[in-house]
Amino acid sequence: MPSPAGLNSPSAVNRRRFLKVSFGGSAALVAAPTLVSWLGAADAKAATSPLPFVDDYKTNVLTNLTPETNAVVRVLGGFAQVWKTGSAWNTGTPLRPEILRANMRYCAALTGARTEAQGREAFVYDRQHQSYAMIAGLGTLADLYKAGAKAVTSITSAPDTTPATTISDAVPADAPAGSALGAGSYTSDLGQVARLVDTVRGPYASGNPGKYAFQYPRPWRMNEDSEVVDTGKTDALGYPVYDSKVVVVPQLLRQRGTSATDDGGFPSGHTNAFHLAALAFAYAVPERFQELVTRALELSHTRIMSGMHSTVDVMGGRIMATALAAATLADPANADLKAAARAQALAHFTGKTGTTADTLFAYAHADASDKYADRDANRRAAEPRLTYVLERQGRKEPLTVPKGAEVLLETRQPYLTAEQRREVLRTTALPSGYVLLDGFEQWGRLNLFAAADGYGSFDSDVTVTLDAAKGGFHAADAWRNDIEGDGSLTKRGSGTLTLTGHNRHHGGTVVEEGTLVAGHAAALGQGDVRLTGGTLRAGQPVRVRGTWTQSKGATLELPLRRHHGAALTVSGRVTLGQGSVLSLRLDDRQPARAGDVVPVIDTCALRGQFDTVELNSATLRAVPVYTADGLSVRLLKR
Questions:
Q1: 114 neighbors 101 (Cβ within 8 angstroms)
Q2: For residue 49, what pLDDT is reported?
């Protein structure tokens, strides 16, 4: 960084006048790196037959600073569409100035509106070990994790003023013997999980090569090198204070780097670390997968809130972390470690909570005070942080999921094949056209929050098999996305799959074994429904746009609600085979009574009858009343 006196030297002023981008009526320096010559859009396309990232991730070292030699620089190549390197850190050319202006405006608005509490929080997550900060994403399991892993921190609050020196996290003097920073001690009850987190954050996961390659300035440096009014004051480091737009948290003033060349903003190292730790924890504790992803995005946002990083920095950190986590988890050298970490976490948490693999998920989501208890609120917070200031441009392009990316869902959706997990990633990905996210292999387009909720589209026929005997997600899972596409869904195996989205797939739905739960009125899509075995259970009235066919041995479970329409409405014909079963449940909120006639099925034509009609009541029995276009039941006392 230039000395205070040098900021206003004639050469510095001329340099700023030569390379400035207007934002908010002021001018901000737009810098570019010196170490790499980016010629126009020289990203991954400049490399000759580059290896897939997961096969080349160990090239991310400081001796490799070009897209041809460094896999991380290559996957961040979308930034080369925005930014062209110059001959020094503070020279260069903005290729997409509208994005960089929006980037600075966002940072200025966020830091300008920041509350004191938000500033203090940003300080804590700037100074605290990033792996430790991620543990809170475990929610109800967080305290159990900290105790089991002996994970500790010394950074729990922010000082009132600017500290006199740099502050670093450390093991507190009063911590139990064997305690460790970050994810915890390797000799603890959760040592394998701690080791996995540290391995994912290993020697090839640093953001520093990317920083040296791009050297995009941090937002507060752009302020100080801007042609704005000099207030005549100096900051805590002795630098001039201008009428700047991005305001650094006061407690972080002395935590800033002093060498601009060695302290680039893009990509954000803290963001990279947050997401790496999150995805390692999510592999070991998939019961909290979505919440960990949400927390990583939230903690990354504090980097912008603090004034230390900009939106493009944070997006770059997320992109590289997604690719690096996948590469490390897919590396055969780590196969035993990741399996041991998952097994250890499951055994530890079920043992401490008295749960099983089948009930741990419910326990991990049972605390109403959990900060991440509301999935919809998590989604609303997560989605805009995937793109921030970027605006989508260009036509829609299909995504080829990067090699190895499917490993990120390996424990969250263990009942799917690797190819099916790739389809989940593809059909839930962000659309093309976000310039920063469209780099080599397009890792930035992956939306892991959405992917945890299953398919986004059935573009071909999908068969899913869940095995109750294997427990956990093998036994039961829920797909919450709104599923589109022309393909069909076939449910096999003894486990239970729940669909809660407003689904529009046209290929139909087939239940052969186990249980399929319709958790939304439109959960079964717009095609035909066939029950050849197993059970289809509805928790609320359901509508089918096609035909309904139910064979021998198959069971339909529906709710009975007084003063309500049919529990099942079918646009096409209903055909009931001999030996089919109807199981009815009285609705707790509006239970039907003796003497009531309650509609069950409404259709254009009904053929056949149920062999058995069951009712979950010790005092009432259901007598079926068939007509040409439906079925009702009359409730009588037993």
A1: no
A2: 80
